[in-house]
Specification:
Number of helices: 17
GO molecular function, one term: amidase activity
Shape: globular
Mean pLDDT: 98
Strand content: 5-15%
Strand order of the largest sheet: 1-3-2-4-6-5-10-11-9-7-8
Radius of gyration: 21 Å
InterPro entries: Amidase, Amidase_dom, AS_sf
Keywords: Hydrolase
EC number: 3.5.1.13, 3.5.1.14, 3.5.1.4
Family: Belongs to the amidase family.
CATH class: Alpha Beta
CATH architecture: Alpha-Beta Complex
Number of domains: 1
Distance between the termini: 23 Å
Length: 477
Amino acid sequence: MPNKDLWRLGAHDLSQLTRSGAVSPTEAVTAALARMDAVNPDLNAVVDDLRDAALARAEALDSQSPRQRGPLHGVPVTIKINIDQTGHATSNGVLALRDLIAPDDAPVVQNLERAGAVVIGRTNTPEFSFRADTDNPLHGRTHNPWGRHISAGGSSGGGGVAVMAGMGALAHGNDIGGSLRFPAAANGAVTVKPGFGRVPAWNPSQTAERGLMAQLMSVQGLMARQAADLHLSMPAMIAPDPRDPFHAPVPWQGAPAAGPVRVAFTRNTHGYDLHPEVEAALLDARDALTDAGYILEEVEPPDVFEIGRAGYRTLMGEIKTLMKPDIDAMGSETIRSLFQTYFAEFPPFEGDELLKMYAKRSHFARQWAMFIERYPLVLTPFQPQPFFAPDRDLEGVAGAHDVLGCAVYSYAMNFMGLPAACVPARLAQLPGGPQPINIQIVAQRWREDMAVDAAIAIEDRIGAMAPHLWAHMDRTH
């Protein structure tokens, strides 16, 4: 492969070349930066260009001996702008925070760099990282490379666009209700939302601790173009850091299954219309797993609608008290208005109700723990419909309902702290153009590796979305 095309390689394939010495980190990073120059002006995914530091770091990595080279040696990555990186603004898409310069690196930045990764840029997010779409007054809108008719997703929308368009082999993101999985679904990337306690988290620029629900529901992760890239990169992400006192140093790879893995399969969208293309994606994923030796059984897990809605209303109750004052003081009219819509769609639990729901979280998690003891994986829809258009969430309560209200399979898993992979299982030909359709695979606590294994099995049958996207981009630009 010519060096100029190295940006096409996923992290797994690229690292094999850099670690063997066949390709230098400088060559890998230079190719990613050239791709960024070619496509980012149109897409606005990377909003803080770190090329000078990236090239200097790559040059330093070039001289490392083979035994010094980490698993991500010279692999270009991006970091979301709501995470601390020394000397850069942790703006979170908020104008008032554009000069909040990080005094040190967050654990995920340190862990990626210790593994040999090279950060080439920082990616866009909506204000306060609290939309499933990516736009803000500070950096503007991030566009989906499949076309302007599809939202880029959020809140890690810049990362999802960057990795799928070829600007880095891995993209960091985080997820409190779907912020890794929404952009993965929008762009056709693959990700695994880790469970609670899996990846150490802390921003040194913080002046106060986050609320309890934010601590329990928010996780750090990566988006990739190929599922195998997660097996390569997530072990580095989960390295311990004492600044996160609740991080659990559990190995990435768990014990192998004694026999074929049982998978619960559901098409239940809890009263929301199931689009034919989403159903087709679920059936394709089911067939791929069956062919790979999994035992699929169509069976209903504990009520995801009740769990998801209860979880998001609990989160909204906490946000109304702890976060809304900052939104009112520093947010744009758009985000202030949107939170009023959120509060209408998800009436916040308050007072005694909020305390009781904190307690009931254990009840919900126990129900799923017992179910998942029999079915270690659960294949579910991610959303009942193909991905929505930009700004659909700003179209009143109906718009917020189409974007977040129906996404109960997403935030239910955050509320219970369960890991969930999101992988494309179909390329739908829709009136606006081709569009990836992602499904979700939920796993037992600490078994992200099993969810990724299942994602690989689906991808082996369906194929990765990136080549289709790049061909589409070449045709339409």
